[in-house]
Amino acid sequence: MIGAASAMGHRMHVSIDAFTSMLPENWRLSCAIITHMIAIVSLSTFGYLGYELSLIAVDKITPILGVSYLYIDFAVPTGAGIMVMFCLQHLWQDIQKLKRREVVCQ
């Protein structure tokens, strides 16, 4: 999750633009903004559920290291939280581009 957050921070996360490349130029930015909002809701839910999972795993101990699974499972909400912050940043940047009538993701 931390690697995915790093990729998202550089707008290098996996995306398939086959659909958006067929859209008119002025619709692409609006599509990106909607995609950011969907990602924020999805990642927030994912992060919350990951947090709940990590709380359940407090009593589980790894057999070799003797470390609580809490620390392992907490990577999910941490990564999701970082990704939400990057999505909010990209959403803000794309809204500013929409106001200035610029091209998306450049």
Described by strand count, sense and barrel closure, the largest sheet is: none
Helix content: 55-70%
Could you give the distance between the termini? 25 Å
User: pLDDT average, as an integer?
Assistant: 85
What amount of the residues lies in strands? under 5%
Low-confidence stretches: none
Secondary-structure element series? HHHH
Q: Gyration radius, to the nearest Å?
A: 17 Å
> Which class best fits the helix and strand makeup?
mainly alpha
Could you tell me the number of beta strands? 0
Shape: elongated
Number of separate helices: 4
Please, could you describe this protein's structure?
There is one protein chain. The mean pLDDT is 85. The chain has 106 residues and is an all-alpha fold. It is built from 4 helices and no strands. Helices cover 67% and strands 0% of the residues.
Topology diagram in text:
Elements: H1 2-9, H2 25-56, H3 69-73, H4 75-100
Helix pairs in contact: 1-4, 2-4
Task: Provide a quick synopsis of the model.
With 106 residues, this protein is mostly helical. 67% of the residues lie in helices and 0% in strands.
What key attributes describe this structure?
106 residues, mainly alpha
